[in-house]
């Protein structure tokens, strides 16, 4: 990898010039050390009507471009992302605080979804359906919908945009992207990469991708507009509770990917060596700031003590600190508020009778960042604080004796994103897959780190949306049922007679 160390080097490698990084009102700081890295101009909310109109005009042209040709733009985007992988990955590290391999992994996830979407651009299949009437055929066809608003969070600042955008664009929908105010630079860097793909493509309409920088008022303009038929939003359940009803009021479509409170059940037969590795990656990776992070461990009482002991020992050796440094596994939380919320949750867990291992501010970490030691918390039961999603590396541990109780506990939270079981018992594994109420249910791997090929999302307070692989593309298109009569008669369905 090219060695990009200073913020200035990374920003230059991402194509920023000094002028666009200064003079604005939105201060961007790095969670690594709290240093300010840019002051960006914000999009005036008064510009939103023109931005939405521009997306509408782009839609008029783009919908007419054959889908495989639209796929060519995404193929070029994938090539540009490959060329920019080191620079963009380094910027993810700088702006979101991810360790180097996770920053690069996020860009790889973008490349993967581009490849997927290119193939998809030739596979936007509908059905043919047998008609009950002679001389008639029925089919289902899929059509572009119109501009899609994509609202993303700081924790996957670029991959989640690419899941949505690669699909939306091959489906014929232009994108208006409102990134998190905590990660606007990565969004602007993606816009530059996208512009290079557009330039190579040649004849794409203006405004296929527009990035708006700023706060909730921009999001409100997008959710309120009937000219934005799709709103795909990733973030907190609190945000989803605002976006969902707003869009529903105008009968728009939402794709919501909100909170998770993901559990692992560890059965007596589990391969504990593997379980420990899976637990540590999924609970501690990205400093516990994935939607899919492991937050609850439901362990059979016969192995609970031994497992907790191994986890506490593994946590004690975790390299915490500057995410740019080789060997670091735990970088900073996004900001001091996130750390305060973590410490407050640990206090509540203690008050509920929990025993906390770790969880203290980390020593020997860079000044100015919110570095904490990940925590393992033995809980007497699944109390209120456990049922909430705290976006930090806290792993609550509960015991079980009867697998039925473990299934009930795993489902007994408001969120329904991801879940898993470690067991070597086929009956337990298959039964778990039937019983988990989550959008993602795994066996002998952790709840996080999904590949792009599957549909990603979950139920209940997670919002019900699906993004990324499988047939998630259908969320970006509208379906029409077509009946064609090629006979010389006009029979009615259901045997109805209506002769005039
Ligand atoms: C998120 O946390 O918003 O499955 C997305 C995973 C990643 C995506 C997480 N592929 O953990």
TrEMBL record:
<keyword id="KW-0520">NAD</keyword>
<dbReference type="Pfam" id="PF00171">
    <property type="entry name" value="Aldedh"/>
</dbReference>
<feature type="active site">
    <location>
        <position position="257"/>
    </location>
</feature>
<dbReference type="GO" id="GO:0004029">
    <property type="term" value="F:aldehyde dehydrogenase (NAD+) activity"/>
</dbReference>
<dbReference type="InterPro" id="IPR016163">
    <property type="entry name" value="Ald_DH_C"/>
</dbReference>
<comment type="similarity">
    <text>Belongs to the aldehyde dehydrogenase family.</text>
</comment>
<dbReference type="InterPro" id="IPR016161">
    <property type="entry name" value="Ald_DH/histidinol_DH"/>
</dbReference>
<protein>
    <recommendedName>
        <fullName>aldehyde dehydrogenase (NAD(+))</fullName>
        <ecNumber>1.2.1.3</ecNumber>
    </recommendedName>
</protein>
<dbReference type="InterPro" id="IPR016162">
    <property type="entry name" value="Ald_DH_N"/>
</dbReference>
<dbReference type="InterPro" id="IPR015590">
    <property type="entry name" value="Aldehyde_DH_dom"/>
</dbReference>
<keyword id="KW-0560">Oxidoreductase</keyword>
<feature type="domain" description="Aldehyde dehydrogenase">
    <location>
        <begin position="24"/>
        <end position="479"/>
    </location>
</feature>
<dbReference type="InterPro" id="IPR029510">
    <property type="entry name" value="Ald_DH_CS_GLU"/>
</dbReference>
<dbReference type="InterPro" id="IPR044638">
    <property type="entry name" value="ALDH7A1-like"/>
</dbReference>
<comment type="subunit">
    <text>Homotetramer.</text>
</comment>
């Amino acid at each position: 990898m090219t060695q990009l160390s200073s913020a200035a080097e990374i920003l230059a490698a991402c194509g920023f010039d000094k002028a666009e990084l200064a003079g604005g009102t939105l201060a961007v700081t790095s969670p690594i050390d709290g240093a300010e890295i840019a002051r960006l101009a914000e999009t005036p909310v008064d510009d939103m009507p023109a931005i939405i109109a521009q997306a509408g005009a782009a839609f008029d042209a783009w919908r007419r471009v054959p889908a495989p040709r639209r796929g060519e733009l995404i193929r070029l985007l994938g090539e540009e992302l490959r060329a920019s992988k080191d620079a963009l990955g380094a910027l993810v590290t700088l702006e979101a605080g991810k360790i180097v391999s996770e920053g690069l992994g996020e860009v790889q996830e973008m490349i993967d979804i581009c490849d997927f979407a290119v193939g998809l651009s030739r596979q936007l299949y509908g059905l043919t359906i047998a008609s009950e009437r002679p001389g008639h055929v029925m089919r289902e066809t899929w059509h572009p919908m119109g501009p899609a608003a994509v609202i993303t969070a700081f924790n996957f600042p670029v991959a989640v945009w690419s899941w949505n955008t690669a699909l939306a664009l091959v489906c014929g929908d232009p994108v208006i992207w409102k990134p998190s105010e905590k990660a606007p630079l990565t969004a602007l860097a993606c816009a530059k990469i996208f512009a290079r793909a557009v330039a190579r493509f040649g004849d794409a309409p203006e405004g296929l991708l527009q990035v708006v920088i700023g706060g909730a008022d921009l999001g409100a303009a997008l959710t309120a507009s009937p000219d934005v038929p799709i709103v795909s939003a990733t973030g907190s359940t609190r945000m989803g509770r605002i976006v969902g009803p707003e869009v529903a009021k105008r009968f728009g479509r939402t794709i919501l990917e909100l909170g998770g409170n993901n559990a692992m059940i560890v059965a007596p037969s589990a391969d504990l060596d593997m379980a420990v590795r899976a637990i540590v990656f999924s609970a501690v990776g990205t400093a516990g700031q994935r939607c899919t992070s492991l937050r609850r461990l439901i362990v059979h009482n016969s192995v609970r003590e031994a497992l907790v002991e191994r986890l506490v020992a593994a946590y004690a050796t975790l390299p915490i600190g500057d995410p740019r440094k080789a060997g670091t596994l735990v970088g900073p939380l996004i900001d001091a508020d996130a750390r305060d919320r973590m410490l407050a949750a640990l206090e509540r867990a203690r008050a509920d009778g929990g025993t906390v291992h770790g969880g203290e501010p980390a020593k020997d970490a860079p000044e100015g960042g919110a570095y904490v030691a990940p925590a393992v918390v033995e809980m007497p039961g699944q109390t209120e604080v456990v049922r909430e999603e705290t976006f930090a590396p806290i792993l609550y541990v509960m015991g079980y004796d009867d697998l039925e109780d473990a299934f009930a506990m795993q489902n007994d939270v408001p969120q329904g994103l991801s879940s898993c079981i470690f067991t070597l018992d086929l009956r337990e594994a298959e039964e778990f897959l039937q019983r988990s109420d989550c959008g993602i249910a795994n066996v002998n791997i952790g709840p996080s780190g999904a590949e792009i090929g599957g549909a990603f999302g979950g139920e209940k307070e997670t919002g019900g949306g699906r993004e990324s692989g499988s047939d998630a593309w259908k969320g970006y298109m509208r379906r029409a049922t077509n009946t064609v009569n090629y006979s010389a008669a006009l029979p009615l369905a259901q045997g109805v007679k209506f002769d005039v």
